[in-house]
TrEMBL record:
Signal peptide interval: 1-16
Similarity comment: Belongs to the avidin/streptavidin family.
Name under which the protein is recorded: Avidin
Entry annotated with the keyword Glycoprotein: yes
Disulfide bonds: 30-109
Keyword Secreted carried by entry: yes
Superkingdom assignment: Eukaryota
An example molecular function term from Gene Ontology annotations: biotin binding
Length: 150
């Protein structure tokens, strides 16, 4: 993956070849923008990432502990510049529209050996509780693998 020099990346499709830095800079980059599906069947769409790394989007979870109807929920986040690494780290916060919970995701966008992008994430889900005595059960943690929707 990253070789340690900003702008120079490992490209699985070019490994084993003697190539100069100019060609290596043109290797595939992992881009967040677009539609993604995770290992639980949840879907999210990420809008264009702006020059500061900011982005927003919509998340439709496939799983929930609530009995309420699940609705699409907005999120906002940031990623590190892709001119520094071909596989950027990122984070975003989801404001669930159907419950008083909030989720934060952190992760990294990777290019697989097959040239396909995927996102490895870890999340925290904070539930609203009635008292500080219930704080112990208010936060859940988990991981998800996202792939591009076809």
């Amino acid at each position: 993956w990253a070789l340690g020099t900003p702008g120079l990346w490992f490209c699985p499709e070019l490994s084993g070849l003697s190539l100069g830095p100019t060609l290596l800079r043109s290797c595939s980059q992992c881009l967040l923008t677009g539609s993604w599906r995770n290992d639980l069947g949840s879907n999210m769409t990420i809008s264009a990432v702006d020059s500061t790394g900011a982005f927003s989007g919509k998340y439709l979870t496939a799983v929930s502990a609530t009995s309420r109807r699940i609705l699409e929920s907005p999120f906002v986040g940031f990623q590190h510049p892709t001119n520094e690494t071909a596989q950027p780290t990122f984070g975003f916060t989801v404001k669930w529209t159907f419950t008083n919970n909030t989720a934060v995701f952190v992760g990294q966008c990777f290019m697989g050996a097959d040239g396909k992008e995927f996102l490895k994430t870890m999340w925290l889900l904070r539930a609203a509780v009635e008292s500080p005595g219930d704080d112990w059960k208010a936060t859940r943690v988990g991981t998800n693998l996202f792939v591009r929707n076809p």
